[in-house]
């Protein structure tokens, strides 16, 4: 069993030579692993990283010449949703005289396989990751290199050992649906997000709970899954609005999907909110400028990012911090919802016209 030693051989930190000896490899091989080099076999890399993590190896203090960086990592940068998170990261970074590095990589579940080598070379103060989960290998590699990380996790399904910031998705779905019920709507549809994201299912569960508590039947035909983007909202709403027994209200799992619903209503000859009430989710800036202005569930995206960076900076200094922080959501009522007039004729959708 190795005792912790400083890199200069004194007590307090393990040395690279000691790690190399226990792993049965050269010091240069350990150095390659630390620096994210790819010319190391997977088995050797795993063995060295486990030893580095087990012995709490810490790299030498960063040079005063090195820039202080915080890295934020997305799987896509196409939406205004991402921009709100970037603004939140920038707010805290600027206040702490830290620069921000922006990276796009991987899928919504994990960063791409080549990302880790780049982040090791950049040596940021820490990393904010916008993913629904983080593979064990990525966590191990970051910890082995003493790079703290926090997940901004609107999906709500991060692992217990991963510091994360999220929001109350179930209550968001509940309050959105309850608002429509209080306006007199009974045929309420939902277009949520992907089936494999917990935030999608949590918002759907909130919808189901509101319907059940009101004693309303839940029609499986009024439940649709999208991808949180405009086109999926337009496509799914186009299907839902066909036929004589269409819904009088639609709860969309994102504001972008809600904008797609507004377009589908327009193409179907329906007026919002006179013929169809629409509720979105997120409260991104375009929601207040849509026509009509969108009633939506405010998810505090900017604050979530700010809290994530604050948590990251505390981890960097060794301060104890909560593993999971969940922020509240609330309903913002604008002009896309209205009371259902009893006995009023409901025009049937005429079918989607070509854009």
In short:
The protein is α/β, with parallel strands linked by helices. Helices cover 38% and strands 15% of the residues. It folds into 3 domains: 1-56, 434 Repressor (Amino-terminal Domain), CATH 1.10.260.40; 69-167 and 302-326, Response regulator (Rossmann fold, 3-Layer(aba) Sandwich), CATH 3.40.50; 169-298, Response regulator (Rossmann fold, 3-Layer(aba) Sandwich).
Tell me what the structure shows.
The chain has 355 residues and is an alpha/beta fold. It has three domains: 1-56, 434 Repressor (Amino-terminal Domain), CATH 1.10.260.40; 69-167 and 302-326, 3-Layer(aba) Sandwich (Rossmann fold); 169-298, Response regulator (Rossmann fold, 3-Layer(aba) Sandwich). 38% of the residues lie in helices and 15% in strands. Mean pLDDT is 83; it is low at 1-12 and 350-355.
Secondary-structure map with pairings?
Elements: H1 16-23, H2 27-34, H3 42-54, E1 69-74, H4 80-95, E2 99-104, H5 115-122, E3 126-129, H6 136-144, E4 149-152, E5 164-167, H7 169-182, E6 188-192, H8 198-213, E7 223-225, H9 230-240, E8 249-252, H10 255-267, E9 277-282, H11 286-289, E10 295-298, H12 301-316, E11 324-327, E12 330-332
Parallel strand pairs: 1-2, 1-3, 3-4, 4-5, 5-11, 6-7, 6-8, 8-9, 9-10
Antiparallel strand pairs: 10-12
Helix pairs in contact: 1-2, 1-3, 3-6, 4-12, 7-8, 9-10
Gross CATH architecture of the largest domain: 3-Layer(aba) Sandwich
Q: Which structural class do you get from the secondary structure elements?
A: alpha/beta
What is the fold-level CATH name, i.e. the topology of the largest domain?
Rossmann fold
Write down the overall mean pLDDT: 83
Q: What does the radius of gyration come to?
A: 25 Å
Order of strands, widest sheet? 2-1-3-4-5-11
User: Which percent range fits the helix content?
Assistant: 25-40%
- Report the end-to-end length measured between terminal Cα atoms: 69 Å
**Largest beta-sheet details:** 6 strands, parallel
CATH superfamily of the largest domain: Response regulator
Uncertain stretches of 5 or more adjacent residues: 1-12, 350-355
Strand content: 5-15%
Number of strands: 12
| Count of the separate structural domains | 3
Broad CATH class of the largest domain: Alpha Beta
Order of helices and strands: HHHEHEHEHEEHEHEHEHEHEHEE
Q: Work out the helix count.
A: 12
Basic shape: elongated
């Amino acid at each position: 069993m190795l005792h912790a030693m400083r890199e200069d051989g004194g007590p307090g930190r393990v040395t690279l030579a000691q790690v190399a000896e226990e792993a049965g490899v050269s010091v240069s091989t350990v150095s390659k692993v630390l620096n994210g080099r790819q010319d190391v076999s997977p088995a050797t890399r795993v063995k060295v990283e486990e030893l580095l993590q087990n012995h709490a190896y810490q790299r030498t203090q960063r040079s005063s010449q090195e820039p202080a960086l915080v890295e934020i990592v997305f799987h896509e940068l196409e939406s205004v949703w991402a921009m709100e998170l970037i603004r939140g990261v920038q707010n805290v970074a600027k206040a702490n005289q830290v620069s921000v590095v922006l990276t796009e990589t991987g899928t919504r579940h994990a960063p791409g396989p080549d990302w880790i080598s780049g982040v090791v070379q950049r040596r940021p103060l820490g990393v904010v990751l916008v993913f629904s989960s983080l593979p064990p290998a990525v966590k191990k590699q970051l910890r082995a290199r003493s790079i703290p990380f926090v997940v901004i996790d609107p999906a709500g399904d991060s692992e217990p050992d991963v510091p994360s910031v999220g929001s109350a998705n179930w209550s968001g779905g509940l309050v959105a649906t309850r608002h429509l019920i209080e306006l007199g709507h009974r045929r309420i549809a939902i277009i949520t997000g992907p089936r494999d994201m917990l935030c999608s299912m949590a918002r759907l569960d909130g919808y189901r709970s509101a319907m059940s508590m009101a004693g309303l039947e839940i029609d499986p035909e009024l439940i649709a899954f999208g991808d949180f983007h405009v086109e999926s909202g337009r496509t799914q709403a186009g299907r839902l609005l066909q036929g004589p027994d269409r819904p009088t209200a639609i709860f969309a799992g994102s504001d972008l999907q809600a904008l797609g619903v507004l377009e589908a209503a327009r193409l179907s000859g329906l007026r919002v909110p006179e013929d169809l009430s629409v509720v979105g989710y997120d409260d991104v800036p375009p929601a207040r400028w849509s026509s009509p202005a969108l009633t939506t569930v405010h998810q505090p995206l900017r604050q979530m990012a700010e809290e994530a960076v604050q948590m990251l900076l505390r981890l960097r200094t060794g301060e104890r911090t909560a593993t999971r922080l969940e922020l509240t959501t609330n309903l913002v009522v604008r002009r896309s919802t209205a009371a259902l007039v009893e006995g009023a004729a409901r025009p049937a959708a005429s079918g989607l016209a070509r854009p």
